[in-house]
Amino acid sequence: MSCGILCNDVHSRLNPVRVARIARPQSTAEASLLVQEAATAGMPVSICGARHAMGGQQFGEDTLLLDCRSLTAVGEIDRDRGLVEAGAGIIWPDLIAALHAVQQGLDPLWTIRQKQTGADDLTLGGALAANIHGRGLRMAPIISDVEAFTLVDTSGQILRCSRVENAELFRHAIGGYGCFGIITSVQLRLTPRCTVERCVEITTIDLLIPALEERIADAALYGDFQFSIDECSPDFLRRGVLATYHPVANEDHPPARELSAADWEELIHLAHTDRAKVFEVYSGHYLASHGSRYGSDTHQLGVYLEDYHCGLDAKLDSPPATEMISELYVPREYLVTFMARAADLLRPSGIPVIYGTVRLIERDTESALPWARQDFACVIFNLHTEHHEQGIARSAAAFQSLIDLALSLGGSYFLTYHRWATRGQLLQAYPGFPDFLRAKDRYDPESRFQSQWWRHHRDLFSAP
């Protein structure tokens, strides 16, 4: 291993990589110059933002790591078309605040449509790299929210990419995990901000899709279902909290009480020690918030506790651990079957489910490597993973079993969170993956842009 700078992702902490050097470009021109210098030196380049992805996409051993979090400029809003140009390194709270600041007193107030949930300090460029989605009930992945972007390619050339200009690069770089170049700024499609009212009920997985369809017919814009994680209960993965958000008259409303950092610390502790009680506490909070009103953009923000496992492990006197995430997709008509079989898989595994949710996604018809091949139900599992060989192997086996289950029902899985899928699983979920790798070779014949994620998949497909 090199003696370079040790990097890791901020959530799973399972991707330690030593990069040769870190550079922080302040502009697109500087990013271009850094790539040209790396090309002259024959050095591979990796790209990171906030480092939340868990599959090793941000780092490559012995690479020049370009940390893009200084690319935060926000341009003027095109109020006729609802567009804004923003630096790829900006995080969502700062983007929302900037949009609000320059539109005070204006109507409509243009703002974002969707962002990732679970954490806020995620960059816009990272969102494009993974082609993310949020809790929108009638939304495709974020590629549908992108008008154009600026990209620095393998030679340092600065390109503008859209559906009409460098269109193939547009399709490959969004959802391309940094393999095709550095996205430095994004022209984002916005939407008028509105007030939304939270509607909460306790329901079961067999009633979920009909309930969501009814809420959508009633104009709900956002929503999700947080399911029970108590493996000792018959309600495991079955009963949950359905919260949807409906537009209402844009009137003044008092701020709703949201879960504080202390509340989340309590919930996380209970999720590790008393999974029956954690649902009671969590559902009680949400039921009490029924009827609360929020901004359609700011309601997507929330508390995220970094490094919470360090204190938790010490408090519980347990081995070092984190939660590993996987997101599985199934046709909506098979959601009930998937959840019942997933419960049968996870109960005897001995691996605690610390958090889980169900959302909806609409089909992605644009990206070169689409994960939303049809209108899916999205199921997110956070599995407690102890940081030793046996603990990691247990989680890997559990996620492989869940992927097999999703595939058996015509579903798929998200590439962002780990590299534990087999080659066969990858090909079944992403039949276009070999073409994706060939496109990478065409656009980047010298493999200038590298990561542990890309190296893993390159080797997976080069093996006999």
Automatic annotation (TrEMBL):
Keywords on record: FAD, Flavoprotein
Superkingdom assignment: Bacteria
Domain FAD-binding PCMH-type: 14-193
Pfam families referenced in this protein's UniProt entry, alphabetically: FAD_binding_4
InterPro entries documented for this protein: FAD-bd_PCMH, FAD-bd_PCMH-like_sf, FAD-bd_PCMH_sub2, FAD-linked_Oxase-like_C, FAD_lactone_oxidase-like, Oxid_FAD_bind_N
PANTHER family: D-ARABINONO-1,4-LACTONE OXIDASE (PTHR43762:SF1), L-GULONOLACTONE OXIDASE (PTHR43762)
Protein name: FAD-binding oxidoreductase
Organism this protein belongs to: Luteolibacter rhizosphaerae
Higher taxonomy: Bacteria, Pseudomonadati, Verrucomicrobiota, Verrucomicrobiia, Verrucomicrobiales
